[in-house]
Design a protein that fits this description.
The chain has 397 residues and is an alpha/beta fold. It has helices at 2-31, 39-47, 52-66, 70-82, 86-108, 117-133, 145-149, 154-169, 176-192, 217-232, 251-256, 258-267, 344-351, 372-387; strands spanning 203-205, 238-240, 270-277, 285-292, 295-299, 329-330, 333-337, 357-363, 391-396. The relative contact order is 0.11.
Length: 397
């Protein structure tokens, strides 16, 4: 009889953990990109978890479900580079490893069942957020659940987090319905009582479908002709184009773009164009070119390149440099470029500088058909809401 109970207990524990992982993955998949505020449910489950194993499986499932587009997206990116099937293996490796690591802070700072649950839950939320935002985890800290809740806005988002701590502090069941109703009202108010900032009419984002970077001068010229035609079809003062669509910016590239550069002086327009500068030991940078008044200004606003694929300091070839403290805001314009749109670190960097407009630029040729582009848009929308300013977003596929 004792043996039977022991075997039964051994079976129940893994089953419970598996269920929690499934619940977390469902929440993550539903939250990102469609309803980021649903991340509140996983934080509530985390605060009420009876032990660290349960909390870890819940968070692990959440990150796996929310970032489900990584295997296919990274597989396509690395597959193109390696011309083989190794890309898909790398994609699944990044997906699993990132989820395993991003879940760790939430078990380290899980509130204990004794002491002061409210204060400890609030501290756990703050410390979990901090640990998953700052490097090293901040280098890939996407789909952060706290930032998902802040999709409701500052007031409703912070009140929702307080309500999570209140739930953890409830000792009498009769108060649960009351707190649940209050939480539902907070979420509803955050979802409904929001008016987007008025759009800046003189900005125009141009979405392109020109694929990967060209590797010949003919390819660069052909792409410039396409982009120039799109830009000239609009009468806006400031035109935004996607990340790195101009390719590697060098003397030859600038010559190809000479008519566009001269046109900014003739017509009084400004173009913000994504490009790549640098090579060799100095490293590359993902930059924004400001074409204005017949001149080119290179805006170095990049902070965190994609780990391994772009940032690989152990190898000099095509290595993009890390600039954690670089400002992504220039003259009140915040530039949120591709991968960095997913990272709370860049979000915070922009918020503290109080821009008057946010310009998103992405090159998503490698992630078409996955959830990644939509998650980028959702993250940009959260940033725009928290900053209280308009968002202009240009994407290449």
């Amino acid at each position: 009889m004792v043996v039977g109970k022991t075997v039964s207990n051994r079976i129940k524990i893994p089953a419970t953990l598996l269920i929690m992982g499934m619940v977390g993955s469902i929440i993550g998949a539903l939250a990102w990109p469609a309803f980021p505020a649903l991340s509140l449910l996983v934080l509530l489950g985390w605060a009420l978890s009876p032990n660290r194993r349960t909390a870890y499986m819940l968070m692990l499932g959440y990150y796996l479900g929310a970032a489900r587009g990584i295997p296919a997206g990274a597989g396509e990116f690395f597959g193109v580079l390696s011309h083989g099937h190794a890309g898909l293996i790398q994609g699944y490796g990044f997906w699993l490893l990132s989820a395993v690591l991003l879940s760790l802070p939430w078990i380290v700072f899980l509130p204990s069942n004794s002491g002061k649950p409210f204060q400890m839950t609030m501290a756990g939320l703050a410390l979990g957020l901090f640990a998953s935002v700052v490097p090293p985890l901040g280098l890939f800290g996407w789909v952060n659940p706290v930032f998902g809740v802040l999709a409701l806005g500052w007031q409703a988002g912070l009140l929702s987090l307080v309500a999570v701590a209140v739930f953890a502090d409830i000792t009498e069941a009769k108060y649960v319905p009351l707190v649940a109703i209050c939480l539902a009202l907070i979420v509803a108010s955050g979802s409904e009582l929001y008016t987007k900032p008025s759009y800046v009419v003189h900005y125009m984002a141009i979405n392109t479908r020109v694929g990967m970077l060209p590797n010949t001068i003919n390819g660069v010229y052909s792409r410039e002709v396409q982009l120039s035609a799109l830009a000239n079809a609009n009468d806006k003062v400031s035109i935004v184009m996607p990340e790195s669509v101009a390719g590697v910016w060098a003397a030859g590239t600038q010559w190809v773009w000479r008519n566009d550069i001269a046109g900014t002086a003739k017509y009084g327009t400004t173009q913000f164009v994504g490009a790549i500068v640098g090579s060799g030991k100095k490293g590359r940078s993902d930059v924004v070119l400001k074409l204005s008044a017949g001149k080119v200004q290179v805006l170095r606003v990049d902070q965190i390149p994609v780990p391994v694929s772009m940032w690989h300091p152990w190898a000099q070839h095509h290595n993009y440099r890390l600039h954690l403290l670089r400002s992504p805001v220039v003259n009140g314009v915040a530039f949120d470029v591709c991968y960095e749109q997913l990272l709370p670190w860049t979000t915070i960097s922009i918020l503290v500088r109080q821009p008057h407009i946010i310009v998103g630029m992405a090159n998503d040729w490698w992630s078409v058909g996955t959830s990644i582009p939509a998650i980028q848009k959702a993250s940009l929308a959260i940033l725009g809401r928290l900053a209280g300013v308009p968002v202009v977003d240009a994407v290449n596929t």
